[in-house]
Every structure is written in C-alpha cells, then in structure tokens.
Design goal:
Chain lengths: ~475, ~475
C-alpha cells in the first residue's frame, strides 16, 4: 500500500507542522497501524458497524492537509453551495486544522504570531480577513452587528468533498488523531490556551445569584500542549464590557464572533479556580456534512447532518456516521474544545484550537441493505467501548419547523423533546443494528442504557443515549 | 472497639443469613476494615465531606439486623407517624433486608420458599399480609384498586430512628455492603432473579411502534447471587393481561403493587435478549428519611428527603447525605435494583430483592457551621471518586405544590425543570463546599461537570450533576 501525501492547493499560508505526514516514519507507522486495526474491526461482528474493507480495496491511500486560513474557513454557517477545498476518495486521510472562534478573547495567547490565525481574525477599519460570520444578511441589515449578523459563530474548516457521495449514502468519519494548536507567541512557548465564555445564551444566564445580573464572564484556561498532563487549569477571568469593533459597532454582549477584546477595558481576575484541575477531553464541537434543506445554514443548531453536536466523546479514537444529504457530502470541522461537561451549561466549552486527522469511508446506499447502517437517518457515534445516538429537540429542525426554522429553533427547544428523540433513536438503533424486538429494546433501554445531557445551549438542544458494546458480546457463559 | 450484635426484636420471621454477623470472622474483619477506612477519609480534606470521627468517639458500636417481613415493612409510603423498628445511635451499623415490590411477577423465582417474602406477599380471599399499599385511602374509595390504592408502590423496610436526630441535622448514610437475596426455591438454588416492567408510567408508553399499542411487558432477569459475574441476563418476557386479585378486583394494567400474576394466563416468551449481558449495578432505588410536610406520603416521587431517587450509583461504597426533617430522622430502605440505566426509561429497573449494610452518622446542626454540610437542603451522594447532586422538577414538591401536591406532581414534571434544579444545586455545592465564586462555579459546571438523566418515571423527574473529586486535588504541579 502506498501513501501519497497531498497538501491542500491553497495552503500557501500553512505554517508549523509539515504537511507531509506520511514521510515522518512514526506518522507512517501510526497510519498503517490504524488501517490494520480498522481491518480487525471486522471481527467484532454485531458489536461493530465499521467495514474497513471498503478502504482497503484501494491500493493507493492519499493523505491531505487542510490548513485553517482566511481562505479555507467558512465562519458561522454550513452551505451546500460552498466549493470544496479538496475532493478525496473513500479511504483517504485528511488532516484538518481548526481554529476556535473565541481566540480574540485573548489575542496574546491565542492569535499573536500565528499567521494562519491572524489571517482569519484580521480586522481593521476597512477590511476583515473573513467578512461573513453567520448565516444572516451580508449587509447586517437585521441587527447591525456585522456581515452574517453572528447568526452562527463557528469557524469551520472545509468543506472536504468525498468522491461519489450522494444523498442516501452514509459517511463514516474516523477521528484518528487530535492535538492542541501550540501558542505561536514566544512569550508562551510550549503552551496552548482556551477560552470559556459564560454567555447570554447559557442555561444559567437569567438565573444568577450574585450582582451584577445578568453578566457575561470569560475565563481563560491553559491547556497542556505536550499531552503529558491530562488536565487544564484556569488562569484568569473577566466580565464582558461593551467592546467597539474596528468598524465602530459597539457589542454590549457577545453578539458577534471574533470581536477584538480590548484588555485595557476589562478587569482581569487572576488566580480563579486556583486549586481546580479540569480533566481534558479534546474533541470537536462541530463536525458534519452540509444539509440540503437550505442554502446557508446557521452553524449553531445541530441536526441530522451533525454539525454542532458538542459531545465531548467526539474525540480521538471515535467514529461518526452521518447521513449524506448533498452530492459530495461536504464535510467541515470546527468549534474545537479542550474540554466540556455534559450540558455545556454556560454556553461554551474550553474553546481551544485543535488539529485533527480524519479518515473518510463512504458507504454507498446500495451496499447498506441488511447492514447495521441501513436506515440510519441521524448522526451516530461509535467509540472503542460504546455506541451513542444523539437526540435533538427537533431531529431535522430545518424540515420540522418550516421556512422560519432558523429563527424558530431558538424559541422552541426543550430537554424533554430531546430526550424523546434520543429514546426513539436508541430504540431504532437497537432494533436495526442488534435485531431486537421493540419489547426487548425498551426493556434494555431501561436497565442498560444511559441517557445524558449533551448540550442545552445550541438552539436545538441535545440529549444522548449511551449503550456499551460489552452488552452484545453474548449472554451465556 | 467492641461490636455488639443485635437482631431486630420482631425478627422471629428472619430466615437464611445469620443475624449475628460480627461472629463471622470474615464479616468482623469487613466491618472493622470499614471503620478504619472511614477514619482515613478524614485525610482527604476538601475532597471529602465525611467526618468519621463522630462515630469513632464511641467505644461501643452496635450492629442491628432488620429483616423484611409483613411486620417490618411499610408498603408504598413514607410516614413521620410510623413507629421505629429500632433506634440506633450515630455510628451504629444496621443490616436491612429489602424486598422488591415486583416479586409476584414470578412467584416461583422471587417468593416461593422464602417465609419472609411469603409473609409480605400473602394474599387470600380474606386477608393480605400487608394490607395498605400506597398513600391512598385505606378503603380504596378513590379507584377501587385496593387499600392505599397503589398510590406509592415500594416495599420499604423501616423506619430506623437515629437517636437525637432533629430537623436541621444532616444524616450521613454509608452503604457498606449490598448483595442479592438468594432464591429460596430449591429448583433455582444459587440464583437470584429480578423483574423489569415496561409499564404505563414509562416514558415510552404512548410512543410505541409495534402492535398491540399500548401494552405493558414484564421481563424476568436472572442475576448472579455469588458475585462472580458482573452481568445479568434476560430469561423471558410476557405481556400483562388483566389479572384478578384474590379480593376479586381486576387489574387491567399494573395499577396496584403485589397483584399475583397468574402465569397460566400469560404467554411466556423465552430466549429474549438472548445474546445480551446487562452489566449489574446493584443499588437501592429508595433510601430516605421521612418528610415533615404530610403524614403519609406516596413513596414514588423523590424529594429533598431522598426516597425514590433511582440513581444506580447509590450502591456499595456510596454515601448519602440527607437533611433530617422529623425527630429521629426515620430512615427506610426499599426498591432494590440489580441494575438500571440513567433514565429508568420504561418505568422500572431490574427489580431484585437485596440486603444492605448501612452505617449511620448524625451531623448535628450546631456542628455544621463552616463545614461542607452547612446549608445542605437536598440529598447529596458521595462515591469513591465523585460527588453528585440530585435535581428534581420540584425540589420539595410537597411544599412547592401545596395541598394537592401528591396528585399534581404527576402532571407537572419536566426534564427541563429538573435540569434547572440540578444546575442550582451543583452551583450551591461548588460555592459552599469548594468555596468558589459564582463565576468560577458556572465556568466549572460548563467545562467539568456532567449532567445526566436520573429518571423520568417517578412523578417528580430527576436529573443529576456529577463532579469528580479529582478536580479538587490542586491546580498546580
């Protein structure tokens, strides 16, 4: 098997890590090891949904590198109309850089000295590196916040097209590797940083104890870049005060992504959460394919095509399965997190730039009949030990809520609805992939499946259901 | 230190296990070992809420044994008016037998040959072993189901009074040991069994795919008694058909606990969930103290005094903290489960009789000032590695909903409300026990606390929040 390395053609802004990963012997071993272990998955029988043979039938596997720059990101939206950065074949690997949309909360630690990130966040009186931020009107005629109106906030890298993908197919996305983006500012060499914003869209916002009420608070966290520590720590926090962007718009709240925070105007409180270690759980808040229901779709509410699911288990070693909705699938990645709790209660995680390596496996609709992936209409997560389904208040809100879905979704969500959807999806999963009757599935869900809160801050609220693979390894012994 | 063994005075019906646990050398070592490790808890500092010294100041520790018989259980309700079976001092141990209220789903496997359980379930044309089942009218004038009307279903053993306990104190309850009750029928020697009822109060009930709709389904599980296997397996299931109780009342649905199931009238389907192993998580669905708001309280909705919390983490090694609401605290145990998933989706767990050994530590109100237990107004769970708070749709529904609370609670619950309460309680926990500011607590909750579904089937729905103790072991290194 040969590994061919490709760097995304417009990668002239690429910095840092070499794109030629396969030429690094340790990397080559890593990738080959991955393929070998994927093949082994076939032996797990009913406990595995992956059929790695699809990839292995090819004699040439390519590895692409997609940097995150002002030319390669789409900020705050998914769109089936976006031109793919690269088209890959089933089985190929793609390393994708992702940049957090909260980096300007601390320019010194999360932007400065990193040309790629600088290019994305560039904003002077006449020009922004990336003008559109969100799915709103480009002329900001709705709220006057800025182009795209911040109706969608995530810096998404992509899309990556998968050759031959069509609606009805399933795209399997394996997350093979993932690591924090090192700080490029020499002052903080060897470190990485993230930001947590307790913001107006948080579950806590109208339910505070202390004055002033309400308030938005940003906490800056330090994350270990080397991977030696499994915890992050808080450095300082500050309360948001009105910030004037370079175009002169005043942002009284965190209503538009990438607004430069003027640290001369905020009060930094150092030594917060002093004795607390946050276990790290690096993952992507946003991974998904383009929906077909609308041309430009707010990146915040997750849906059947994935997107902003915000499940911390979507990290290294995990595999996602998405229903393909448009030709080419059009996969994008963003919203990188160093850690998050189930619920993402205050509105955000530790938002921290990450680079991930993915393998894409396309399962054509015609090959799905009789397999575990037949009739999969929702994003499914497989980890080493578990399967997870993702329930949303509205499983496909763009279709469910009609023409005004993109605004209505913010008014209609509830945890109760999301739990209902997670129940239905887990029942479907157990009945289709494990061959259980409805009575068996319902009993099993009550005695052996765990339901938890994914997030209550993304418009379309999410609940997940977790079933361990070890349940299906045989009842007798 | 001396161990004095007491058997509950009315234990003439006790069978099986010897009550004289301390005379078994291995048991003695176990208990002493427990006390030693409790003392060690004092070294955990901020990460531990337990102050075992309270118990160790006494030179005499007693160990009581409370069997479950028709004379020692209260079925379907808590009451501050119940005469205590035994009064113990802070530091004492009590072994409490608990019997599942679903045993009559399979008389052969869960009742037959066990005189204690037979006495509880006894029911002929003229007499029931335990007449009142539930908090409803004793003359069944409301629905005609039976005495107590099944408004409350759990067979609770107790109450145990704690000497000197008064409202405002905190009762710490340590679960030191817990094991399934072995089947007493020689045909099934060495095995234990449990029942899972997918019932009309389940989250799935009005949302089924297959006919007939709706339906109630009972699945009988086999549980390993020896402790060598960490999984249970399903044996068979059957659909509920109308059952006529010995008094002649027809129960079209599972509307009254302990109705004998006539197996000549049901269709047993063997071989269900054939290749599935259910991980066991033995725990008590119901542990709690008597509330003060009403005299006789339905055992189903959990509240600030605990009760039917249905969190599978309330098992061996766990410690619960309850606010004492009435003199003596009046602790009872019931609703034993062999396993349950987060949500208890279909209405029940694997309902399986268990015997537990508990230690009670009383924390007097005057000693709480400045400690982690000050101002604790909700049931708190501590495990080896985690703290959990329990949120409910209504934190104290008896007070929150007024005079008709006991019926209204079944109409007003939502997961959204329970999540709101869990958020508030976790914020309170972090601010009071860890000394965090509100801003610190809110950020930490979003990046390092996990919110999950405890149950959505107990009237007062529950969500929990989990924070790992390892977070508080020091931020620097």
């Amino acid at each position: 098997m040969a590994n061919h390395s490709h760097t995304f053609p417009r990668s002239d802004t690429l910095q840092g890590e070499s794109p030629a990963l396969p030429e690094d012997p340790s990397r080559r071993r890593f990738i080959q090891g991955t393929i070998a272990s994927s093949a082994a998955l076939g032996h797990l029988g009913a406990a595995s949904l992956a059929y790695a043979q699809t990839a292995l039938q090819r004699s040439t596997i390519s590895h692409y590198h997609v940097p995150a720059t002002d030319q390669t990101v789409h900020w705050g939206y998914f769109s089936k109309s976006l031109k793919p950065l690269v088209e890959v074949e089933s089985g190929d690997f793609v390393t994708i850089e992702t940049v957090t949309h909260h980096a300007y909360d601390d320019y010194e630690r999360m932007i400065k000295g990193d040309p790629s990130v600088e290019s994305i966040y560039y904003w002077d009186q006449t020009r922004k590196g990336v003008n559109r931020r969100g799915a709103g009107p480009i002329d900001a005629s709705l709220f006057g916040r800025g182009a795209g109106e911040g109706l969608g906030v995530h810096i998404c890298t992509g899309p990556v097209a998968i050759t031959g993908a069509e609606p009805g197919d399933i795209l399997e996305v394996r997350i093979l590797d993932l690591k924090p983006r090192p700080c490029a500012n020499p002052t903080y060499k060897g470190k990485s940083f993230g930001s947590n914003a307790a913001a107006w869209w948080g579950f806590h916002y109208n339910d505070m104890l202390e004055e002033p009420k309400p308030r938005e608070v940003i906490t800056i966290y330090e994350v270990d870049t080397t991977g030696e520590r499994d915890w992050a720590r808080a450095l300082y926090n500050f309360r948001w005060v009105p910030q004037t962007d370079p175009f002169g718009v005043v942002h009284k709240t965190i209503d538009y992504p990438g607004v430069p925070v003027d640290h001369s105007k905020v009060q930094e409180n150092w030594g917060v959460l002093k004795k607390v270690r946050i276990p790290i759980r690096p993952h992507f808040g946003v991974l998904g394919v383009a929906p077909q229901e609308a041309d430009i779709v707010d990146s915040i509410p997750p849906s059947y095509t994935g997107g902003n699911i915000d499940n911390w288990r979507i990290g290294k070693g995990a595999t996602m399965y998405y229903p393909v909705a448009v030709p080419g699938a059009l996969f994008s990645a963003g919203d990188p997190h160093a850690s998050q709790g189930d619920s993402e209660l205050c509105g955000t995680a530790i938002e921290c730039s990450l680079t991930g390596t993915f393998q894409f496996i396309l399962h054509k609709q015609a090959t799905l009949k009789g397999t575990a992936l037949e009739s999969l209409t929702y994003p499914l997560l497989e980890t080493q030990t578990e399967f997870l389904v993702h329930g949303f208040s509205f499983p496909n809100y763009l279709a469910d809520l009609g023409p005004s879905a993109q605004s209505d979704i913010y008014k209609k969500s509830s945890v109760d609805l999301a739990l209902r959807d997670a129940f239905r999806k887990m029942r479907h999963f157990l009945m289709t992939t494990q061959g259980l009757s409805e009575d068996e599935a319902v009993s099993l869900m009550s005695v052996g499946v765990d339901f938890g809160v994914t997030q209550v801050v993304d418009g379309n609220w999410g609940m997940h259901a977790i079933v361990k693979k070890s349940l299906f390894t045989g009842g007798e012994s």
